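Predict the 3D structure for this chain.
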Amino acid sequence: MTTGKIEKVVNLNEIEAMSAEEKLSLSRSKNLFVVTHRLEPIVKVELKKSVISAPILFSEPVAEAQEPIQEITQLPLESPKPRTKRSPKA
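Done. Predicted structure below.
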């Protein structure tokens, strides 16, 4: 349960053929689940080899001319005016 992965899939016939010690070691600190269906991928990946008839040249990216960096001076920030407290009128 700590990894969240399926560690082993065992048939019921295999479990019945195991000794009590083997069953205990199989289930120690694990959760057992009954699996009714198995899903198998139906996608097939094929890698094809092809002959290279002409040399392939990879050019390095050309660095663009950079503009000189201009120094930006900060404008003085105006401090907000302090609010005056009003006394409640009775």
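The chain is about 15% helix and 0% strand.
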